Amino acid sequence: QVQLVESGGGLVQAGGSLRLSCAASGRTFSRYAMGWFRQAPGKEREFVAAISRSGVGTFHADSVKGRFTVSRDNAKNTVYLQMNSLKPEDSAVYYCAAATGVAAATGATINDNDYDYWGQGTQVTVSS
């Protein structure tokens, strides 16, 4: 069992930055590929970014590429999402998730059905 706790959300003006953190419980964090997803009101949950167990492989949605960066620190059991040049359309609840079934150390998945554990989410609101 893995517990994930996100933090770092808040209200920011367009063009600003936020860094989200997701702290994981347990001693097996380095075994999980991690992902970030978001869901805005009235919209389906969408993939934002993912990172492999090793941290070598990273993947970002086209909508955030060049503005968001996913990273992880396995020694701290934490995954991060650095968000720069924020836009109002980035406003959503952001969730981190852990996937246990990604075999390759450099692999990750963008499919939310592949993730086994989810955090409670953190709200990000970008004002125009």
Please supply descriptive tags for the structure shown above.
about 130 residues; mainly beta; seven-stranded mixed β-sheet; four-stranded antiparallel β-sheet; 11 strands; globular
Question: What do you see in this structure?
Answer:
There is one protein chain. By secondary structure, this protein is mainly beta. 0% of the residues lie in helices and 46% in strands. It contains no helices and 11 strands. The strands form 2 sheets. Strands 2, 4, 5, 6, 9, 10 and 11 form a 7-stranded mixed sheet that branches. The chain has a 4-stranded antiparallel sheet with strand order 1-3-8-7, with no helix packed on it. A hairpin with a 4-residue loop joins strand 7 and strand 8. The chain is globular and about 40 Å long. The model has no long low-confidence stretch (mean pLDDT 95).
Describe the global form.
Answer: globular
- The stretches of 5 or more residues where confidence is low (pLDDT under 50) are none
Quaternary organization = single chain
Query: What is the helix content?
Result: under 10%
Q: Which structural class should the secondary elements be placed in? A: mainly beta
How far is it from the N-terminal to the C-terminal residue, by CA? 40 Å
Q: What count of helical segments does DSSP give?
A: 0
Strand and helix order: EEEEEEEEEEE
Query: Overall mean pLDDT score?
Result: 95
- C-alpha Rg (nearest Å): 13 Å
Number of strands: 11
Most strands sheet: 7 strands, mixed
- Beta-strand portion reads over 45%
